Amino acid sequence: MLPLQADMEFTAKQIAELLQGTVDGNAEAKVSRLSKIEEGTEGSLTFLANPAYTQFIYTTNASVAIVNSDFVAEKEISATLVRVENAYASFAKLLEVYNTIQRNKVGIDSHAFIESSSTYGKDVYIGAFTYVGKNVTIGDRAKIYPNVYIGDNCTIGNDTTIFPGTQIYSDCVIGNHVTLHAGCVIGADGFGFQPNSENNYQKVAQIGNVIIEDHVDVGANSSIDRATLGSTIIRKGVKLDNLIQIAHNVEIGENTVIAAQTGVAGSTKIGKNCMIGGQVGIVGHLTIADGTKIAAQSGIGSNITKPNEILQGSPAFGIGDYKRTYVVFRKLPDLERKIQDLEKTIASLRDKASS
After folding, report:
1. Percent of the chain predicted with pLDDT > 70
2. How far apart are CA 355 and CA 353, in angstroms?
3. How many Å apart are CA 33 and CA 63, to the nearest integer?
4. Distance CA 71, CA 328 (A)
5. CA dihedral of 106, 107, 110, 114, whole degrees rounded to 10
6. Which of 34, 74, 187, 341 has its CA 20 to 30 A from that of 100?
7. Are 291 and 276 a contacting pair, CB within 8 Å?
8. What one-character-per-residue DSSP string does 306-352 give?
9. Residue 285 among the catalytic residues
10. What is the pLDDT of residues 132-165, one digit of tens each?
C-alpha cells in the first residue's frame, strides 16, 4: 500500500479525466492511496491488467479500480471502475504522477552549505547537510537530497534528481532529467597506476572528468570514474542499474542499458542501444558494436564489431553456438563413458586379432 500525502485525494471522475477513460459507478468515489488489487482497502486505488488477477476484482475493498475498456464483469463489483484503453499503461501513468508529486520538494534547507560563487535556478530543492562547492551551476527544478556532495566547477542540469549520499567530484557535468540514486560516486579517480623500478605502483593523476548526458538513470551505489585525460562519457538515455563500475575514459552509447554488478574496464567504447546483463565483465580498450546483447555473467575479452549480435559465455561468443556447445558440455560424462567403452572394445578386438 502506497500512502499519498494527506491533501492528495482524488475522485474517480478526476482520475478518468486524467487517463481519458470513463467511469462505471460512483464518479465521486474518493481515493488517497494506491494498492495492489488483492490488498485493496476503502479509499485506495488499484488496477486490473493481468487476467490471472481477475478473481480479486470481485473481492477487493478498493474504492476505485482501473480496468480495460473491454472488461466484462461476471458478478457484482463493489469498486467504482475507471475503464481505459490499457489498464497497465494507465496505472503506470498514475504512478508517474504520484512519483512527481511525492518528489516535488522546493527550497534550500537552512543546513545546506552553498559556496557563494555557485548559482542555482528556480524551484530547486537542496536538502540538509548537502555541500555545493565553488563555481557550481545548478539548473531549474533540480532536486538535491540531503547529504549530497557536489565538488567545485560542476554543472547540474534542469529537472535532475540527486538522491541522498551521492558524491560528485569536481568538474563533472550532469545533464537534464538525470537521476542519480543514493550512494552514487561520480568522478572518483580512475584506476591508474604505473609500475616503477622499485616493483611497486606509482599513482597516475586522473585530471579528466565525467560527462553524463540527458535522461540518464544511474542506480544506487554505482561508480563512474573520471577520465585520466578528457572525459568518461555516458550518452543520452543510458540506464545503469545498481552496483555498476564504469572505469576511466569509458564511453557508453545512447540508450544502452546495463544490469547490476557489471564492470567495464578503462577506455572501452560501448555502442548505442546495447543490452548488457548482470555480472558481465568487459576488459579495457575494446569496442562494442551498436545493438549488442550480452547475457548475464559473460566475459568480453575482444572487440565486438558486428552490430546486433547476441553473446553469452566466458569468454563470450555467439549465443547460438553457445547453446549448442552447452548441450555437448552437459553430455560430456556420457561421451567420456562411451569413449572408454569404445577403447575397451578396440583393445579387445586387437587382442583377438593378434592371438
Report:
1. 97
2. 6
3. 10
4. 49
5. 110
6. 187
7. no
8. STT-EEEETTEEEHHHHHHHHHHHHTHHHHHHHHHHHHHHHHHHHHH
9. no
10. 999 999 999 999 999 999 999 999 999 999 999 9
Structural contact between residues 251 and 232, judged by C-beta atoms closer than 8 angstroms: yes
Over the chain, what is the mean pLDDT? 92
The single residue of 177, 215, 248, 285 carrying the catalytic annotation is 248
| Dihedral in degrees, nearest 10, Cα atoms 305, 308, 314, 318 | -100
The C-alpha atoms of residue 37 and residue 34 are separated, in whole angstroms, by 9
Q: Is residue 233 within 8 Å of 252, Cβ to Cβ?
A: yes
pLDDT tens profile 110-138: 999 999 999 999 999 999 999 999 999 99
- pLDDT (tens digit per residue) in 265-305: 999 999 999 999 999 999 999 999 999 999 999 999 999 99
CA 264 to CA 111: how far, in whole Å? Answer: 37
Give the whole-angstrom CA distance, residue 93 versus residue 98: 9
Helix (H) or strand (E) holding 273: none
Query: What's 35's DSSP letter?
Result: -
